[in-house]
């Protein structure tokens, strides 16, 4: 097994060789990232800056060998927070990631982009058709944007796929919903609190998903951090043959520390320290 | 301006020492319990040491379930996942036989009696080994307020998907609740907590079906050894630390971010680990570096 430091400095093709094919992402904290970057955290300038960060993050993942990125543009809580301007908010978010500027970015990366929406949001299916047409053939790399406006939407999409599918196997339903085969996702990249919800984990694409939550807000993950995560994914998680626990490790396995415990940090949640045992 | 502290939030120390009913009041109604972990799943081997570890894990797992019911959880959805049946043709059968012992063995039945809980083996009607085991469970009808254990035994992908596909066919409507009723047989409140062991891994389709937003926690204790103090720490985080959404203006939070820069620029990631004793173990996560006292 390659050492971490060697992997961090390895040629890109070595990283690509072990990267997951399909990754789900749910990155939040973009306003915090804007503040840290000295940018406004609301208004048009913020929106333009945040959109570019999204594109840069997609580029980072694609360059490291990920072929399919599964992400959600809108989750139900966004529409609760912007209830008074729901339609305008929804339209702006969709336009931001499917409009002319983003299409130019998708051509440059290059990648395809798709918009997966609940069955009754017909206008979004038209947007998807146009997006499919305009990004067709540029690459097999694809970002699958999902729109989830209610808690039922992930499941309504599954039902709609089951009704349209030619068979009842999961692959049939994936083809019916997405229009093609997609490898099951095996990695999730999130930010902040460790939370799992159907709106960020499209059910049909669930594989054996190894999860990671960065605490850098927004799309601030850099190449070194991504490589460290990919190293854990490829070399640390797969090793599951338990050896008898040596006595000196006993305190580690009897720890009260739990991944997920946290503290308040100025109105935000932040992980509590985890004092791992130093291992030779 | 930051809102003043809320008097109804107890300190952690007070909560750890509080009467059980205070914990019960904030406990999640439904909890998904991820029982995939190397020591337990190692039962697939025939090594006597491994078997001994698995038996110990079994006892601790049942104690964990008992502890969760004691602290007010009404619906517990523990799940096991089978090994890859494509590389081992006999894997599903051994997994289901083993699961039957886990869920309907003598120690398990005694635990259910002490807890006064109902027990369901989800999908048992489609899996012969579990159908027989299911007959050993006490017959109980749906009833309000009775704690319920929803064992989800998830065999290899193909067998599991057949169960899901059948539920999609018989669901009365195309909602999450409709699919829950088709798969689980009755309404279950949304799961808002996931408790697992070892590395952070997402649950498969059927436990995810119950999820609203699940606040997730992964203990690193071997063999599911969670005592009441640890469970109370988790419930405290769930009830009082995770909620950061408030109805009012929250823009004041961004005025403090610059002072928290070091914390938000950390290289540490929840989920990155190292090997220890052949298992994954979390890497150190440092304390938040903050200018001034905001925590």
Give the termini distance of chain B in whole angstroms.
16 Å
| Secondary structure: number of strands of chain A | 10
Give the count of helical stretches of chain A: 12
**Hey, roughly how much beta strand do the residues of chain A contain?**
15-25%
Name the average pLDDT of chain B: 86
Quaternary status of these chains? heterodimer
Structural class of chain B: alpha/beta
Number of strands of chain B: 9
- Number of H- or I-type helical stretches of chain B: 12
Gross morphology of chain B is globular
Q: Uncertain segments of chain A of ≥5 residues (pLDDT<50)?
A: none
Report the radius of gyration of chain B as a whole number of Å: 21 Å
Biggest sheet strand order of chain A reads 3-4-2-1-5-7
Search tags:
heterodimer; A: 280 residues; alpha/beta; six-stranded parallel β-sheet; two-stranded antiparallel ribbon; 12 helices; 42% helix; 18% strand; globular; B: 295 residues; 39% helix; 17% strand
Protein described:
The complex is a heterodimer of chains A (280) and B (295). Chain A is an alpha/beta fold and 280 residues long. Helix content of chain A is 42%, strand content 18%. Chain A contains 12 helices and 10 strands. Chain A has helices spanning 4-8, 12-18, 30-36, 44-63, 76-81, 86-98, 100-108, 122-134, 153-164, 170-178, 223-236, 250-253; strands spanning 22-26, 68-74, 112-116, 142-147, 185-191, 195-196, 206-214, 258-259, 262-265, 268-271. In chain A, the strands form 2 sheets. Chain A has a 6-stranded parallel sheet. A two-stranded antiparallel ribbon of chain A has the order 9-10. In chain A, helix 6 (86-98) runs parallel beside helix 7 (100-108) and helix 9 (153-164) crosses helix 10. The two termini of chain A are 16 Å apart. Chain B has 295 residues and is an alpha/beta fold. Chain B contains 12 helices and 9 strands. Chain B has helices at 12-17, 20-24, 38-41, 48-70, 91-104, 106-115, 128-134, 157-170, 176-184, 205-209, 228-241, 261-264, and strands at residues 30-34, 75-81, 118-122, 148-154, 191-197, 211-219, 269-270, 273-276, 279-282. In chain B, the strands form 2 sheets. A 6-stranded parallel sheet of chain B has the order 3-4-2-1-5-6. In chain B, strands 8-9 form a two-stranded antiparallel sheet. In chain B, helix 5 (91-104) crosses helix 6 and helix 5 (91-104) runs parallel beside helix 7 (128-134). The radius of gyration of chain B is 21 Å and the shape is globular. The relative contact order of chain B is 0.15. The model of chain B is unreliable at 1-5 and 41-46 (pLDDT under 50). Strand 7 of chain A pairs antiparallel with strand 7 (269-270) of chain B.
